[in-house]
Amino acid sequence: MSTTTAQRVVAATDTANPGYRTLWRWHFYAGLFVMPFLVVLAITGTLYCFQPQIEPLLYPHRLVVKPQVVPKLTEDALLSNARAAMPKDAVAVTAAIASAPDRSTEFVFRLANGEKQSVYLNPYNGDVLGTLSVENRFMQVDRMLHRKLLLGKPGELLMELAACWTLVMIGTGVALWWPREKTTARAALVPRFALRGRPLWKNLHAVMGIWLALGALAFVLSGLPWTGSWGKQFKALATAANLGAPPGAWGGAPLRSVLPSGTPIDAAATSGTSAKVDKTRATHDEHDEHAGHGANAADMDSMPGMVMDDLPLPLTPWAVGNSRVPTSTEPHAAQPRPLSLDHVVAQLAPLGLTDGYSIVLPTSPAGVYSVSYFPGDPKDERTLYIDQYSGAVLKDIRYNDYGAVSKAVSYGTSLHMGRYFGLANQLLCAAISLGLAAMAVTGCVMWWKRRPQRSLGAPSRERAAPPMRGWKTGLVLLGMIFPLMGATLLAVWLADRTIFGRGARQPV
Asked: 251-255, 319-323, 432-436: which has the minimum mean pLDDT?
């Protein structure tokens, strides 16, 4: 296409579709920032979605055992064998309860240096099959790449920003695709493989994008509540409005752990102020990042003010993340004997929990058994706290106890992770994720084919752009809802006005 012809096409496009180039310019900026993160999110998210199938292939000698007709050993016997295989100063913190005949039994220990290590045993004969670092196992590294690029808090904020800018990319992309004039629905929704060169890439990018838009939007909205900055504030707001965590999670009626002497000890008495809770959680988060705070790290699970998100669990329902874990002051008298793990497992069976849950073990005389059941169907989620001496159920939190926001987030999380309707859900998530990665690739190819030399290649601004008040209002609202993104929106707008300038007009 000659320069004159290209200019005519640009002029015709600007006249027929006022605001088109403005939308394209913002779509370009959003894509420029989002594309590399989108590829990382797509690959790591797809891998994590298939964790149940991938991990047994990666660690078959630890996770998989040969089914036998003999009864399995008791949980207490297996835990005793696991303790014998670990250093004397290692503390057992979590037991994973599973009944599958071909899977090993797992216990998580916290070492003296603060690191967590899983120990796997054959449930039929008690043999120790091996260990794995909780922080360094493949799927945990993949998960941390997905959440924070292995960069700690800065990486988490970058991923949060990428998710927010994806909303801009989706909105402007749909607006650019929207059929105009005599364009038929078929032409807008079906790829035209007869095209060649850049027009073919543009058509594939547009058609594929519109088919993926709804899934991408669902991914972003279901993932944002789990982010460390905006998600944390969103959870606090939902809780304050009685739409999030169950009553008593933050304030309200405190949980109580009753000592055998019969003297109830209020958990709130040792929980301190909210500032102390935040400090404790910040310390724990830092510990998880750097894995090493000395011997005292083994006792972190019983520190005052701990909440469910602080416990050594692989996953915790969003609604109960801020639920306080009950504690009590240590007694001055000789400590009575706590209940065994076998007793707790047997106690949970009549309550409807028989498989696929985790138990955080009490690591101090003031601790309790914290049970977390996080299945694929959110309606079956359960969180229980059990007194380690009397076996009393201090609290039993179920899906019906959640607020409206927490219920919606629970369903979004299950769908986002490919857990809700089995393999079909996993395949759907993989198709959306890999499709978004393909969108990033096609967008990059389109830019490469039209790129000017020694220039960013951003689409030029229109000479007389329409007011576009609706879009401006939408961006302002988006910036208010996501303040971190609002700051970057302002920064990009200023850079666009002062640094990049109008630039040369590019072909559409």
From this structure: 251-255
3-state secondary structure 243-311: CCCCCCCCCCCCCEEECCCCCEEEHHHHCCCHHHHHHHHHHHHHHHHHCCCCHHHHHHHHCCCCEHHHC
Q: Of 1, 184, 11, whose CA–CA distance to 192 is shortest?
A: 184
Spatial contact of 104 and 55, defined as CB atoms under 8 Å apart:
no
R_g of the chain computed on alpha carbons: 27
Whether 201 and 93 map to the same domain: the answer is no
Statement to judge: residues 45 and 190 lie in one domain: yes
Query: What was the pLDDT predicted at 178?
Result: 84
Asked if residue 231 is part of any domain, the answer here is no
Strongest mean pLDDT among 124-128, 190-194, 440-444, 469-473: 124-128
Q: Are 150 and 270 found together in one domain? A: no
Please report, as a single letter, which amino acid is at residue 506: Q
Residue 237 in domain: no
Which is more confidently placed, 504 or 163?
163
What are 138's two structure tokens? 């493949």
387 and 442 in one domain? no
389 and 336 assigned to the same domain: yes
- If we measure between CA atoms, which residue out of 383, 307, 345 comes closest to residue 95? 345
CB 355 within 8 A of CB 418: no
Tokens of 323: 């639920």
Q: State how far the Cα of 383 lies from the Cα of 359, in Å rounded to an integer.
A: 10
The 10 Å Cβ neighbour count of residue 299 is 13
The dihedral sign for the CA sequence 64, 66, 68, 70 = negative
Q: In residues, how long is the chain?
A: 508
- Count of CB atoms within 10 A of residue 409's CB? 27
Q: What is the pTM of this model?
A: 0.82
Three-state SS at 352: coil
Cα distance between residue 120 and residue 187, in whole Å: 56
Place of tokens 């064998």: 81
* H or E, element range at 492: helix 483-495
C-alpha span between 256 and 387 (Å, rounded): 9
Parent domain of 439: 3-50+143-224+422-500
